[in-house]
Amino acid sequence: MTIKPLRKAVFPVAGLGTRLLPATKTMPKEMLTVIDRPLIQYAVDEAREAGIEQLIFVTGRGKWSLVDYFDVSFELEATMREKGKSLAPLEPSRVPYGELISVRQQQPLGLGHAVWCARHVVGDEPFAVLLPDDLMAGTPGALKQMVDAYNRVGGNIVCAEEVAPEKTGSYGIVTPGASDGNLTEVRGLVEKPEPEVAPSRLGVIGRYILQPEVMRELDAQETGAGGEIQLTDAMAKLIGKQPFHAVKVDAVRHDCGDRQGYVLATLALALQREDLGPVVREFMQGSTSPRT
Ligand code: G1P
Questions:
Q1: Assigned superfamily of 8-284
Q2: Which of 170, 214, 230 to mutate to test the pocket of ligand 1 (most atoms within 8 A of CB)?
Q3: pTM, whole model, 2 decimals?
Q4: pLDDT by residue (tens digit) across 171-188?
Q5: Tell me: the pLDDT tens digits for 197-222?
Q6: Does ligand 1 come within 6 angstroms of the Cβ of 233?
Q7: Residue 159 in contact with residue 204, Cβ under 8 Å?
């Protein structure tokens, strides 16, 4: 089996972010800030650490700021230079020339449809999918850990974790086969099953490494759970034809698509930082007021 290197990543960023209204009324949810950078920056940093060279954003109307964010901000940089300010804080938000490509998903027809909108850019190569709402805090990053597994077993890999029994209806759920360390063979996949019918509690979280053949399955445009074109259904059709594994990574997942996850992500990341950790810890222990 030849394992083609992973160079491309698809970021489905066309969603409306209705769970976070009114914050997301005029601002893409992926631009919400955790500490000092938007969610999309965390996902892009994770991808680049994993060796990704081409970033493919699947955007929609009102999402242009995501592409602008990774551009050169000419006026800002000129002004900062004139004032003798360091440009270092802007460094992570600069994408090398030509390495960010955006396509539009003109209608919200589902995650599978969003990924399929990138088919011409993906071409005949394996690709990663990163859902930026899922902020993965880990060292090395979640995708890097997945790439390490991919380089051993090839094929398709989903990131997975045990979810609460009552939450299976919010995830793609794996029918697990044999396990070897952090890898579990995937025997089946079902999108958002109710707990009574869920094959396990092993839920897919927002990181995938997929083979280009999944695009051929998506060509059929079949709708599934919620009347949407589901990535899970297209992936399920590859099982048995190509290697398919779920990997549990050593990282903490924060679902920033909802209020609780978003607040906890901010706190967890602040606590880890040298410049913010001590003051946040003290505040949480009740020994300082927010103004001190
Ligand atoms: C999507 C996928 C689902 C996956 C989840 C991970 O659902 O359809 O299979 O488990 O992302 O976050 P969504 O959260 O977009 O409803």
A1: Spore Coat Polysaccharide Biosynthesis Protein SpsA; Chain A (3.90.550.10)
A2: 170
A3: 0.95
A4: 999 999 999 999 999 999
A5: 999 999 999 999 999 999 999 999 99
A6: no
A7: yes
Domain ranges within the chain, ordered by starting residue:
8-284
C-alpha span between 77 and 93 (Å, rounded)? 12
Q: Are 59 and 14 in contact (CB under 8 A)?
A: yes
Q: Is 243 exposed, middle or buried (0-12, 13-18, 19+ CB in 10 A)?
A: middle
Atom of ligand 1 nearest to the CA of 15: 15
Question: Residue 129 belongs to what H/E stretch?
Answer: strand 127-130
Nearest-10 Cα torsion for 159, 172, 115, 147: 10
Nearest to 12 by CA among 48, 45, 40, 49: 40
What secondary structure does DSSP assign to 24-59, as a single string?
Answer: TSSS-GGG-EETTEEHHHHHHHHHHHTT--EEEEEE
**Does residue 265 contact residue 34 with C-beta atoms inside 8 Å?**
yes
Instruction: List the residue whose alpha carbon is closest to atom 1 of ligand 1.
Output: 171
Distance (Å, whole) CA 194 – CA 169: 5
**Are the C-beta atoms of residues 225 and 155 closer than 8 Å to each other?**
no
CA distances (Å), 25 to each of 30, 63, 128, in order? 12, 11, 29
11 lines ligand 1 (CB under 6 A): no
